[in-house]
Amino acid sequence: MIRSFLRRIGKFLNRIAARPHDKILALFYRVQPALVFFVVALLGMLTAIASWYTIDHANRLAFVSIAEDAVRRVGDRVENHMLLVKSVEAHFQAAGEVPSAEAFKVFVSHLRKTEQFSGVQGIGFARYVTTGASSDQAIAAELQRNYGINRKPWPETSEEQRTPIVLLEPATDANMRALGFDMYSQPIRRAAILAALAERQLRASGMVQLVQENPQNPQAGYLMYTPYYAANSGRALGLVYAPFQIPSVFESALNRSPILPIHVTAWDGEPSDTSLIYRSDGRPSDRINRPQPVVMSLEVAGRSWKVEIRPSESYSPAVDQTRTFMLALGGLLLAGALAVSSRSQQRTIEVGEALREQSERALNDRELLLQEMKHRIKNMIARVLAMSRQTARSSTSLDDFTQSFNARLQAMASSQDLLARTAWQSADLRTLLMQELRQLFGGTLDEAALEGPDIELNEVAAQAFGLAFHELATNALKYGSAQSDTGTLEIRWQAEPSSTSPQTLIFSWRERSEQPLGEKDSAALARKGGFGTKLLDATMRVELGGSLDIVPDSHGIDVIIRVPYGRVVTDRQLRRRVKGA
């Protein structure tokens, strides 16, 4: 289906190419390969995006299932703890009284053989009594009778009721420190005790620091309370309770096989720094394609825990996204291949047009070449005539004329030979200039009139400056200072640095005649519409990116050429200059 669609697009765009007069259709033709690439790539990307979201949604659902499993494990553990406390309360009800310390120890020892006891600090009983000296003495006597310790209820309290711990198993050193502790004196514990008494059912406390804990390394804990009433009077005798270490509750639940690749954070109530009760070790995953965290509520004996489940660093998605990347890559490759194929079809059409344009350019170049050859031949004849007149004026005999004239013709030939030998690849500026000037002055050339550093011109600059020197020398012979023996010529060049732009090569040509030039010759030197002047301006400005200034004078002319230094010298000289700087 895609191929058929693209074939129709190709036919439509090829028909567009047959009507180049229509600019809008021609524009469509030019962008055909890009359009084909864009359409196919877009379809490929849309398919890849759909695949990405499908796989991502499946991975999210899989992670939600993992999170639900984790919360269910913790909930099962908490449920086991609730059943544990209720089973002790049922034992009290079956006995009809608070059992002795020995009987309570035997009962708890049987419970500890089951997994239900994992994470529980102990199982105990706290008397519910009225605060006073007589109740303190009775509690102290019960502690002496049960565990052989001499201890009164603690700490001091201003509350009307007390709930001191009188039974607590197993009898570890940590649990022995908790005997006699009045849990009613602490506000968080008291709130849970009052809720259990008022509702006559099991209730959990908020987060507390357990009395059994080492003060140097405390861990968060909570307690579950269920009231125990006298069989005959229904009076509350106390509360069966169990303290739990919260980290142990979570770890014992989550460390069961299989280990879940999750990071857990839990709060007692709404999430805040003060309500934080548990956080897994390690860090949650920070990968781009990680699932969003799952927040769930867990009811714990009248309290609500908020549990946030994030993927851990060991988490791997259930379905890999490799297929998505392959779809995207395949779409791009297909788009590229079809765009190349479309471009190949266009090239077939463009080759014919290119051949036609090339033929037209060849005809134009031929016409320009003929014009340049015509101009050069005219200049060559004019130079020869000018040299003959100048040589004749300064010659004393025919032999003297013949010798001088032959020398200047030889200089002209040497100049052309220099450019031919180097194939215009490169040339020394001074050498190139002297070859041209020897045609003016013959053997009397004053080299002191030439001032400037060694400049090795590159291919383009050698051609441009060769034409410039030829044109300036020809004009000097025909109209300027070289018409007489008294004329002077000063030539300077230098590389001038600039703080706001790259270095500039400045070439100055200054020629002066002793007598004022005639009106005709002066106009010829200064005119800007001739082919030679246009050619000189084009070579300096267009080819070299420079400028040409011609300043006429009654006795001669000043010509100043400015071109970027880096565009006229060879790479070798440019490196030497940078290294020297």
Description:
It is a single chain. By secondary structure, this protein is α+β, with helices and mostly antiparallel strands. 53% of the residues lie in helices and 18% in strands. The chain is built from 16 helices and 19 strands. Strands 1, 4, 5, 6, 7 and 8 form a 6-stranded antiparallel beta sheet that branches. Strands 14-16-17-19-18 form a 5-stranded mixed beta sheet. It has a 4-stranded antiparallel beta sheet with strand order 10-9-12-11, covered by helices on one side. Strand 16 and strand 17 form a beta hairpin. The two termini are 66 Å apart. The model has no long low-confidence stretch (mean pLDDT 81).
Helix-residue proportion: 40-55%
Number of helices: 16
Q: End-to-end span in angstroms?
A: 66 Å
Oligomer: single chain
Query: Strand-residue fraction?
Result: 15-25%
Task: Let me know the average pLDDT.
Answer: 81
Q: What are the low-pLDDT stretches, counting only 5+ consecutive residues below 50?
A: none
- Largest sheet at a glance? 6 strands, antiparallel
* Count of distinct strands: 19
Indicate the structural class.
alpha+beta
Q: What is the 3D shape?
A: rod-shaped
How much is the radius of gyration in Å?
53 Å
